[in-house]
């Protein structure tokens, strides 16, 4: 399964849930694997942390076309 590199500012949605868009705000490189802090686009007070491995796997998250 092809995985894509993840960069700050990119937007993603959970596979099968295209209405909720998350933007990569920062990385936590002190963890293994590295994790991304995601900011919900329509509610910037909502944050989640997801591993880069999961975020770059299209079975879990997909790039949002905005």
What distinguishing features does this structure have?
1 helix; single chain; five-stranded antiparallel sheet; 66 residues; mainly beta; 6% helix
Structure write-up:
The structure is a single chain. The mean pLDDT is 91. The chain has a 5-stranded antiparallel sheet. It has 1 helix and 5 strands; from the N terminus they run ββββαβ. The protein is mainly beta. It has one domain.
Number of helices: 1
Across the major sheet, the strand order is: 4-3-2-1-5
N→C terminal distance: 24 Å
Instruction: Report the C-alpha radius of gyration, rounded.
Output: 11 Å
Poorly predicted residue ranges: none
**What about the largest sheet?**
5 strands, antiparallel
Structural class: mainly beta
- What is the β-strand count? 5
SSE pattern = EEEEHE
The shape is globular
β-sheet strand percentage:
over 45%
Note the topology:
Elements: E1 11-14, E2 17-28, E3 35-40, E4 47-51, H1 52-55, E5 61-63
Antiparallel strand pairs: 1-2, 1-5, 2-3, 3-4
Question: What's the short version?
Answer:
This protein has 66 residues and is mainly beta.
């Amino acid at each position: 399964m092809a995985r894509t590199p993840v960069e700050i500012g990119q937007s993603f949605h959970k596979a099968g849930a295209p209405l909720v868009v998350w933007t990569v705000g920062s990385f936590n490189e002190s963890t293994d694997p590295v994790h991304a802090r995601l900011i919900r686009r329509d509610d910037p007070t909502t944050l989640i942390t997801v591993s880069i491995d999961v975020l770059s796997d299209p079975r879990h998250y997909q790039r949002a076309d905005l």
